[in-house]
Amino acid sequence: MGRACKAYIAGAFEHPTRHAVDQSVAQLHAEVARGALADAGLSKDDVDGYFCAGDAPGLGGLSMVEYMGLDVRYVDSTDTGGSAYVVHLGHAAEAIAAGKCSVALITLAGRPRAAAKATLPDYDNDTPDTAFETPFNQMIVNNYAMAAMRHRHEFATTAEQLAWIKVAASHHAQHNEHAMLRKVVTVEDVVNSPMISDPLHRLDCCVVSDGGGAIVMVSPEIAKSLGDRCVKVMGQGEAVKTTNRGQVDLTFTAGVKSGAIAFEEAGLTPADIDMVTIYDSFTITVLITLEDLGFCEKGQGGRFVSDGNLISGVGKLPFNTDGGGLCNNHPSNRGSMTKIIEAVRQLRGEAHPRVQVPDCTFALAHGSGGLISTRLCSATAILGRNDA
Description:
Layout: E1 8-14, H1 25-40, E2 49-51, H2 61-68, E3 74-76, H3 84-97, E4 103-110, H4 130-133, H5 140-155, H6 159-173, H7 187-191, E5 195-197, E6 200-201, E7 211-218, H8 220-224, E8 231-241, H9 255-266, E9 275-278, H10 283-292, H11 301-305, H12 324-327, H13 336-348, E10 362-370, E11 376-384
Parallel strand pairs: 2-3, 2-4, 9-10
Antiparallel strand pairs: 1-7, 1-8, 4-7, 5-6, 8-11, 10-11
Helix pairs in contact: 6-10
């Protein structure tokens, strides 16, 4: 099975719904769990480790283990927002390597669209930053717009360059029957869409959807018995960026550190990566992340994404080939799960034929949790084809 690794992804499943009007969040978790286990050729009786984040109802892992009838010996409910599920991928790999579990089920679900709630969850009054930031009534898009404005100021990044990220996502989403936005858009469409928070336009923003997804991770021994569809976890890294006591630099994320950790563990470099799936809450999120992960120099992201360089079959680095959060889905502000799932599809050769990357051997999945202009947790995973 090629180069040795700690754990494999044996099953992956993305819920087809984008509007769950008659399903609870717990039901969605259970449905994606069933789908991922079926994809792996396993049953819930095989699961001995369970992982989820703050999107899970009740007491998180405790509530969901009982709801789904699991019998586990390891549970983890770590929540780092949008990066949580790339974090869990790494935590599950470590737990498997340590012998704490051998079949880890990781589930995501949310229904913010049906609940008409597209904001971050309410924070407890004891949260340290509340007293300093809440009085200013900050909104999510404002925080990302500040980062975009600063990037424009320092590096002359243009709205047209940011728009190319949305254009690439739309080119991929047209082939995804479940994507919320399947219409291919142009740079002009993006920059002429309504301004939401300068310099971000409406089409620079992700969709809000219901849905979810799940993956099943297994030990190398179990992977050998499941055929050649298992995907290697080559490396994973996570890191936190804070406001640094008010000395804030808006032009980078913790991906600078998480990416370096993941690449070192995998023994690879950005030049080895065939495609990427990057958390895309806004176009600026993708641009800064590409710089932080080393795919281009700091400040050169605008030039890098221009002229279709992120479009599969056209550009040098295909990204979010399912349409991503910008066009496909974005359930529960924890979109890194769907990034893992699409990377798995590509490495298996099971993506849509029009977006499948030829001979896809190594893929990178990345999540960002928190706010890009304040505190943020980044998590990066390097995944490899079974025979890599």
